[in-house]
Write a structure and sequence with these properties.
Elements (H helix, E strand, L loop, with lengths): L1 E8 L11 E7 L6 E6 H10 L5 H11 L12 E3 L17
Antiparallel strand pairs: 1-2, 1-4, 2-3
Length: 97
């Protein structure tokens, strides 16, 4: 799996800071990549509950560990675990980092 942070959006002015949102893309190398959004609050809950071991959890841990002023540095970061991308014909491609 490959988990990549695509963007981040601050919480609305009338919302709690933990509503800050991150958009990410999950790829398993065999199906169409899937984009999703997660709040900082949800990322913190999942990090507290899940063990390390896959790209998604590593991405969440990095989001939680990063200071607010450094969120821009997360955009474009990718986290992998046994990621083996394939092309449209099912043939393995070179791994992208």
């Amino acid at each position: 799996m490959k988990a990549s942070i695509i963007s981040h959006q601050p919480a609305p002015v009338d919302a709690e800071a933990e509503i800050y949102r991150f958009t990410f893309c999950l790829e398993d190398g065999a199906t169409v990549p899937h984009a999703e959004t997660i709040s900082l609050r949800t990322a913190r809950v999942l990090v507290a509950m899940l063990e390390d071991g896959n790209a998604f959890v590593r991405m969440l841990r990095e989001i939680v560990r990063t200071e607010y002023a450094d969120y821009d540095t997360l955009v474009g970061r990718s986290f992998t675990d046994q990621f083996r991308p394939v092309d449209a014909e099912g043939k393995l491609r070179e791994t992208e980092e």
